[in-house]
Amino acid sequence: MKRERLANGILTAVFIPLCILYMMPVIIVLYNSFKPNALINTDTFALPTAQTFTGMRNYVEGITFGNYPFLNSAMNSLQITVVSTLLLLLCTSMAAWYMSRVNDLFSRIVYYLCIFSMVVPFQMVMYTLPQTAMRLRLNTPHTIPVIYMGFGAGLAVFMFVGFVKGIPLEIEEAAAIDGCNPVRTYFSVVLPMLKPIYISVGVLEIMWIWNDYLLPYLVLDKTLYRTIPIHIQYLQGSYGHVDLGAVMALIMLSITPVILFYLFCQQYIISGVAAGAVKG
Amino acid sequence: MRKKKTRPVHAGLNSQLIRRSMQRWFPLFLLPTFIAFCIGFLWPFLQGIYLSFFQFKTLDNMNFAGLQNYLKAFGDASFVSAFWQTAKVAVVSIILINLFAFAVAYALTRGIRGANLFRSVFFMPNLIGGIVLGYIWNTIFAGVLRGYNTALALNSTLGFWGLIIVLCWQQVGYMMIIYIAGLQSVSEDMIEAARIDGANSWHVLRHITLPTVMPSITICTFLTLTNSFKLFDQNLVLTNGAPMVFDAGQQIYTTEMLALNIYRTFTMNWKWQGVGQAKAVMFFILVAGISLFQLSATRSREVQQ
Amino acid sequence: MKKLFALVLVLALALMACVASAQEGKVYFLNFKPEADEAWQALAATYTANTGVEVKVVTAASGTYSETLTAEMGKGDAAPTLFQCGNKAGLDTWGEYCLDLTGTDFYNEMTTDEFNLFGENGEALCAGYCYEAFGIIVNKDLLAQAGYDISGITDFASLKAVAEDIHARRDELGFDAFTSSGMDGSSSWRFSGHLANMPLYYEFRDDGVTEQPATITGAYLDAFKNIWDLYINNASTEPSQLSTATGDQAAAEFGEGKAAFYQNGTWEYANLTGNFGIPAENLAMIPIYCGVEGEDKAGLCCGTENCWAVNVKASEADQQATLDFLYWVVTSDEGTTMMAEQFGPIPFKAAKASDNVFFNDANAYIAQGNYVVSWAFNYTPNVDAWRAGVVAAMTQYSAGGSWDDVVSAFVDGWAVQYNNQ
Fold it and tell me: Is the CB of C87 inside 8 Å of chain B's CB atoms?
């Protein structure tokens, strides 16, 4: 036992520097965001000194740079992620409940199609999906949730069906006998029981949609709308102008909400990931 | 895994009652998802297969091309090169990511102090998307390599290992979570019993821990495999395929992987859009094949248990 | 009260714009030149405020125009109504989308058809709306500080002597010879496009090329190496650091007086005199000398790839709206002012005089009987892909790689892209 405690002590001692090393990339970007543009390229790892510290200049520059304000991109990202996730959770969980309870031919076909869609890489619809979206005017941040719901339905339906199967029927039957119609049964009986799986699916969808680049890049009318990943990618030389200081600042601005979200919802995220992975 | 779709035994008369009343609500429950699914997946997917047999400028302007696109895709040396590059990345990242992830998970489940904090740190990079992640690492790599008078995009070996480092950094935490979940199900009693029988740590790991976490290993292996095959963002940002060579009458981007190659084919010029679509179909068959293989692998193992 | 009035006015206009655009057609211009993006956006807003017609201006990122155009053209009734189709390759692809401009009010305003592109039956498909010249921009003031004058630079040897002397004395002088030759996407087109024009031009001149060749020989790539080596070895940025150096960096080096030579074109004038405040009399543009026989009689590289085409597959209303917009751009005070500022002298009757000294230099060389180096790169097959290959090879070479890769990117790349297009 004593030996074990010693070994664990050593492990802790090893892990502390390891973790700092692991955080290093983010830390380096953080302090580079307070350095002048020129020094980032020539002296990447030097800490800002009293002379080179630029204060919030890079942040101001980054937010105001270009003809598309960063805040618009951030709001688009937020709107798309929140609306798509909520819509997706509500609709697919209802569909999953319907499929597993009704279980008729049509439900089964849709279910297997959903499973099938999970193995189809995005490249397969890379050309056609944006065309469809454009023709149906689903190429704005307000309407793109429909696309996310459609393309993301596979995994969500799969996970919800897996969970619903484990819910005993008796409660729903009791509700039906008490005269509840299915809508009320769903919202007052089934939904509360689905809470854990809601969180798992929600976490996975949020992580996917918030970070997604290619789908919104191709689908959104990118002349009018950008999301954060598109915005960051656009900074690279597209307008004869790369202000690395501003890029560093924008990177920090775009990962800060993610890290905050992580700090507050850590346990849900980790359990959500574990559940999702084991199922998927 | 799912399947074993045995209907609940008690799915009798009463649930028939539920079923009836539910079917009337079909438009509310199933229809929205189904319509979105058709728009966001089914129709574009079918149209994609159809288009792979055409040469098209836009959707209103296309000519039937038979198997031309597929032949052209096969004859494209850059596609073949991208396939091997993808395979290489997949193999190396599967080994490294799983090794690191398992080691970290193993250490963190031994009840060491600060395990929760460490776990949080290791998982954190996962939440950062591929594009932003790529730019973070671009800065670091540029800073390091500047001292050696080179850059990631100048040397395909550097480009390859750069990508591997980024993938490890991003995915180790994710796989670690899965391994931790697996390791936590290892029975303490069995380890205790083995210890009393005189087994050392290595024996316990080899004969008790590893067999129990086997399902996690399978899951993680396939996750890293599909992640590598679908990889796009990091590939785009880090090297965008550079450096480039000429070979077999084609311009070959040496660090380019399949997803990026398909993207590049689509955007080369309109005559190649059909070829891009044909490549996408083949890519889909490849990825679907891997997934089927995964399914049968996990299934046969479930039977064994 | 004034503010309130303005607000009401703006709202009313916006409302009108909404109503009008519903019936009167709209304009969607897919712009080719990132550096003119702001000016176009402002001009479009002015037009919308004046007439209520919606004008959307979208700018493709450098090196992605054909990719963006292909994607946008697939958008049915949301496709661009006005786009850029600047060379024969573009015409081959998009010719069937180009409206015959002959007889339109806008077309009748043109003073020359020299820069236009025509279809097989003589239809005017693309209207060259400006011409440009590029060369080596010189800061005459800095050159004088170093004890030189542009009259002494007449060929590669004299350019090399001046540049190497300035580079050797950079610490004493406080500036270097050339700006950084960045290979970042924001800057690399200056070399893979414009500088690469030199070997292409001389090769095509010798071979009498008049249409896109399937292969090139790279006969003048030694000259290309001469000038490239001169650029990268006589600048403050280490050659190995060029892969990430940006266009901004070079503009700033020149603008802030840290370098005497800067390869760029007439379009850079507004930036240099406006943003950086360099007095016009300090600026001059000289030919790119690269060690070719008889180049003391060379002039600037003049030509254009800036041609407007109107999408014939757009609705009638949109086509008319687009033509009206073009007419307004080349006749109205706001339009011609902006065009003169951004594009210099334009071939339209109502064109405003431009004070861009670079055009004066271009004309002066022609007047002296020097030959014009035409834009041979307009023949490049699959231009974005070819240039990407050349950029990659040049970056590698600059970081210590082999020149053979550059030759291969030129010659083999040309053959590959000819087959790919």
Answer: no
